[in-house]
Design a protein that fits this description.
The chain is α/β, with parallel strands linked by helices and 191 residues long. The protein is built from 5 helices and 8 strands, in the order βαββααβαβαβββ. Strand 1, helix 1 and strand 2 form a beta-alpha-beta unit. It starts with 21 loop residues before the first strand and ends in a 6-residue tail after the last strand.
Length: 191
């Protein structure tokens, strides 16, 4: 579908994939810094949706630009999800990336928790025994610049009034399980 980096054979460890039991929240960067990569974002997201939904899983979509927006809640409807992905265009916008990841977790019914209160699974086997496997997949160049209302024109770019930080993303969980976040870097200037 596009130019991809190749990982060494021992860099990937696959575990606990049970078809039909997965939920993925896709965060799609639609900001100005990835405008030239938007077709790659759309193709990759559509392929990912097929991989999750066809075996019986569900996916949700979050668009990231000046504000983060939920495009689709968790759904098993691949056609609808791919239609919504197809509507993305290369926006000339800021990037509320951290807000988008937080919203993606909220599509699972998740929350940000105090880091001193969170429980972690002891190992991969404990995680795999959970009833649902959830994960957030972020397609981005990583250039966050608006989740904390970081520019001075708050009248025109108010954000969602929640100052999401990178540290907050380490504290996302759903039903006591820390939410894994995976990123796919886009373009030649990935941050």
């Amino acid at each position: 579908v596009g130019p991809f980096a190749t990982l060494p054979g021992n860099a990937v460890n696959v575990g606990c994939a049970v078809p039909g039991n997965g939920e993925a929240a896709l965060v799609l960067d639609n900001s100005g810094s990835v405008a030239g990569q938007i077709d790659l974002v759309k193709d990759a997201a559509k392929t990912f949706v097929d991989g999750v939904v066809q075996p019986g899983g569900k996916a949700s979509l979050v668009r990231v630009a000046t504000d983060a927006t939920i495009l689709a809640p968790l759904s098993p409807n691949a056609a609808d999800l791919k239609y919504r992905i197809g509507q993305l265009d290369g926006a000339k916008a800021w990037t509320a990336l951290y807000d988008g990841v937080r919203l993606a977790n909220e599509t699972f019914g998740g929350e940000i928790v105090d880091p001193n209160q969170r429980d972690r699974d002891a190992n991969l086997e404990a995680f795999c025994k959970k009833d649902k496997r959830r994960g957030i997949v972020v397609f981005t160049d990583g250039q966050e610049n608006n989740s904390k209302s970081e520019h001075s024109d708050l009248k025109n770019y108010p954000g969602d009034s929640i100052d999401t930080t990178l540290d907050d993303l380490h504290n996302l969980r759903v039903q006591g399980v820390t939410t894994p976040i995976y990123t796919v870097g886009l373009g030649g200037n990935v941050d």
